[in-house]
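Components:
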Amino acid sequence: MSHVLVTRREGAVLVLSHHNVAARNALSPEFYTAVGHALREAADDPSVGAIVLTGAGGHFCAGGDLRQLVKRRELPVEARRARLEDLHDLIRSVRDCPKPVIAAVEGAAAGAGLSLAMACDMLVAAKDAVFTVAYVKVGLTPDGGATAFLAEFVSRQVLTELCLTGAPLSGERMHALGAVNRLVESGAALSHAITLATEISKGPQKAMGRIKHLCRLTMHHSLEEQLELEAQSMVDAMGSDESMEGIQAFLNKRAPNYIQLREGSE
Amino acid sequence: MSHVLVTRREGAVLVLSHHNVAARNALSPEFYTAVGHALREAADDPSVGAIVLTGAGGHFCAGGDLRQLVKRRELPVEARRARLEDLHDLIRSVRDCPKPVIAAVEGAAAGAGLSLAMACDMLVAAKDAVFTVAYVKVGLTPDGGATAFLAEFVSRQVLTELCLTGAPLSGERMHALGAVNRLVESGAALSHAITLATEISKGPQKAMGRIKHLCRLTMHHSLEEQLELEAQSMVDAMGSDESMEGIQAFLNKRAPNYIQLREGSE
Amino acid sequence: MSHVLVTRREGAVLVLSHHNVAARNALSPEFYTAVGHALREAADDPSVGAIVLTGAGGHFCAGGDLRQLVKRRELPVEARRARLEDLHDLIRSVRDCPKPVIAAVEGAAAGAGLSLAMACDMLVAAKDAVFTVAYVKVGLTPDGGATAFLAEFVSRQVLTELCLTGAPLSGERMHALGAVNRLVESGAALSHAITLATEISKGPQKAMGRIKHLCRLTMHHSLEEQLELEAQSMVDAMGSDESMEGIQAFLNKRAPNYIQLREGSE
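Structure:
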């Protein structure tokens, strides 16, 4: 197990906790590798229904490590680029994981830490959490998909201001802007995220994987493209054990039991 | 005339009312055919200025008929797909109709019923209307453009939650999220929709058809593509009888009369 | 200097003020040329950190000049199109200018005046400013990117209503919809815009140019395309004098001084 990532199970929920507390969970190559590995394992483990990603010690993630960045400017362009791809591969891992990934954010989610929080499928945040597109303050530009993820819910005018000034957004403001699924008291983000993840983990696993995929792609699709993707997904789902169970349960006025289907195969 | 679709005129407004009340207006092949037919007729009828789509008996539409869906899983994949295309052709008919289509929603707009409501150009909803992306509850995935239409006004985080949980959204919440043009008291959606449609039906018909098209395509266009489409549309509009009437009326400080232009040809 | 555009400097801020007061700053070929010219000069002048665009006499811009439009319908289609391209080139100039452009809006921002205000990177508006997609009232259709820019922050349902009815939006409503960076008292838009521009002008100029570009393109990109653009931009920024200054200042707990870097070359 990695030193910077502590993993534990809470029933069907896998909790991934960043432990680089002295640096407010600043990012590191070790963290990228460990999270990518954990997400790939979770994808293949039918007992994992949902994943929570959080940071230990009261901060989600302070972003890149500036002491490392100072050294990186001495590297050739190709080497700088390779280090960036490690971050971007992490963002892709969150996107491509077929299980829902929920960010639980306390304290700082700054720079690439903000990107990582916004890359998740859902967001639970403490009221006093602080999201910042901090890059401009040190003469840098956003990475990790920060501009892509923020543009999903703020106007271009606000996006531009946030990225040009690095002004902080509280959890409360992020909730008002529509990007926070559960706004909670300071210190309560992880427990609420686990509750939400537990509830979701009871759903139909294959259908939920398809739904995550649909929700990720729709903002980049024309209506025609999305209708096609929805149709392919629905045709598959119609023949699944999950919909058999779901529809029978509905018609018989009982609760569906999707958990029993997890170990078997269609 | 179809048994499941009652059509009537209110001045220049065509009202289409779904009548499958015992099943809370669950969808049927007969309904798809009847609405598609009515929209094509309305497109060619200069006396129709706008269209209102609603459901009788206190519910907009409960979505797909689960008893039919149970049978459909026995069908070969191609046959399942064909039935889905009937729904998707209905969504395309609403999009492609050159007249504005306004949904008047009371009670349930569930599953493909939500998709149909959101496919319309404008939305009038009762405060206590209930919108749900219900599919996941029975092990299915969204269709009818549900994910495309919701992504136009909610964040990806909220979209994912709605689709993974099937949680209900009230008319009031949909209004707060920005997708409802008129939020009204329970029972008043149809009358307010007709009022809005009547007002709009007085506008310049050809320009309004172009405007609907611009509003539909912009979210899938780059700025350059949309500038091109706006320019083509404007160059046409500049030479139209409608703009002649509109500009002359403005300069002469009188109200324009676009109705007189409807029967003639440019 | 043009008669319809008054330019002045406020420190590092270039203020462009439309002076066609008798016509509530209706657009003219002279204005297009003058703004395009001023923005190109500002792009090349390292002493300009940010630009404010406003209208004199209490109105931002009333849009196209209807008396001119009446004559334009007599022109061949190619000539009509050429005049539209002049407007669209102005919109492109605002987009392509590497310095942030902030609109300061009092009174009317109607038709192409609304397009021009929304084309800017940020927006400062008086509470009682009035934004209207006025075209439909005179039988015309939107241009200048109006439909593209509004779709960035309103639902398709609201976009369609605004464009089909020409209904006015107050500065207050535009702020609630998320498109206004600073909502101010009537008469105070210009002074607040200059304050915001002055603050922003202290930032790292090259990084800010890249950030503006990222913020403009993200809504038209897939996540993969935007990650690529962010990576290219970050790799450049990592090697810049600006990030050297920014990171050193941060590690030494002092304020960065990006102004000193403006005259030099990397």
